[in-house]
From TrEMBL:
UniProt xrefs under PANTHER family: RETINOL DEHYDROGENASE, WW DOMAIN-CONTAINING OXIDOREDUCTASE
GO molecular function, one term: oxidoreductase activity
Protein name: NAD(P)-binding protein
Organism whose genome encodes this protein: Exidia glandulosa HHB12029
Family according to the record: Belongs to the short-chain dehydrogenases/reductases (SDR) family.
InterPro entries, per database record: NAD(P)-bd_dom_sf, SDR_fam
Keyword check for Magnesium: no
Keywords: NADP, Oxidoreductase
NADP is among the record's keywords: yes
Source taxonomy: Eukaryota, Fungi, Dikarya, Basidiomycota, Agaricomycotina
Length: 322
């Protein structure tokens, strides 16, 4: 069957993490319909392959790519495998995330929400940077790194990133508030990381645009599964409240899709490079991060601790792995 596409992304390659469900799935579909070759990268092979098969039936150029962000090593291995498989990468969408959940450490000894949402994406992105830079050096290139953050970063008031203990803060254990604060801490780390990465790329004269996006409050499949773990009497109340007040995944994907594909993002670098987009009345609008996300000393602390912790797991020369 001939695909129904908007050919604006034809010839470009995209990689969407967490693309098997929720906002990531809708982003994956949208980019494919615009003509890009899109890799759906996810740890959930069953749902990922099903999503890819559906788009293939409609004639789109899509592939499933197994991705486990649960450890730094598996994130690095996936990125190296992809770089050896593909000759270019135009759009990287860092969408995968663990939502608010019970306290658990990853095999790296880092609380899993931080390990997957932040460290996994940092390792993946940096390992893919040579391929992204190679693509960006081509005439007419438009290379973008889009990271799905959350305005939940505003809930943190005294977060520090100097030690492993601070990354692993439990915020009171498995209460609803504690789980939400751990998720917010991971999103704060992403929020500090993106403009820092943009500054690094600008200093290297790399023609790459980094954009952080907030999807809004979205009732995704992941949120539904999380609600199902709540006590019986709470479950149905929460399902109704979320259905009534939260956006659909289709609406939540709009900022990601805009950041990854809109021509004005490339045409207006002073506006969009290192920017933060929020959904306002169905449009992606440049906004401001708040609170600790503005703390440059904290950003420096995060960068230094991240580099040290990754080097402890992957070796001092991890960026040079091929």
């Amino acid at each position: 069957m001939a695909p129904t596409t908007q050919p604006g992304l034809r010839g470009r390659v995209a990689f969407v993490t967490g693309g098997a469900s929720g906002v990531g799935l809708r982003t994956f579909r949208a980019l494919a319909r615009m003509g890009a070759k899109v890799y759906l990268a996810d740890v959930n092979q069953t749902d990922g392959l099903a999503a890819v098969a559906g788009m293939k039936r409609d004639g789109h150029d899509v592939e499933f790519f197994p991705l486990d962000l649960g450890t730094m090593r598996t994130a690095q291995q996936a990125a190296l495998s992809f770089a050896n498989h593909e000759s270019r990468l135009d759009i990287l969408v860092n969408n995968a995330a663990l939502l608010s959940k019970e306290y658990e450490l990853s095999p790296d000894g880092i609380v899993d929400t931080m390990s997957v949402n932040y460290f996994g994406h940092v390792v993946l992105t940096n390992t893919l940077l040579p391929l992204l830079k190679k693509t960006a050096a081509e005439p007419g290139a438009d290379v973008r790194i889009v990271t799905v953050g959350s305005h939940g970063h505003r809930f943190l008031k005294t977060q520090r990133f100097e030690s492993l203990r601070q990354f692993n803060e439990d915020y009171g254990g498995n209460t609803v508030q504690g789980q939400m604060m751990r998720y917010s801490a991971a999103k704060l780390a992403e929020t500090l990381w993106m403009p820092d990465l943009q500054k690094q790329l600008d200093a290297e004269n790399a023609n790459i645009t980094c954009v952080l996006v907030h999807p809004g409050s979205v009732y995704t499949e992941g949120a539904y599964r999380r609600v199902q773990t709540l006590p019986f009497y709470v479950r149905y109340i929460m399902r109704f409240v979320l259905w009534l007040t939260f956006d659909t995944p289709e609406t939540g994907a709009l900022t990601s899709i805009f950041a990854a594909s809109a021509p004005e993002v490339h045409a207006q670098p002073d506006t969009y490079r290192g920017s933060y987009l929020m959904p306002v009345d169905g449009k992606a609008v440049v906004s401001r991060v708040v609170g600790q996300a503005l703390d440059q000393a904290l950003a420096k602390e995060l960068h230094e601790s991240t580099e040290r912790m990754i080097a402890e797991k992957l070796g001092e020369h991890w960026r040079e792995a091929q």
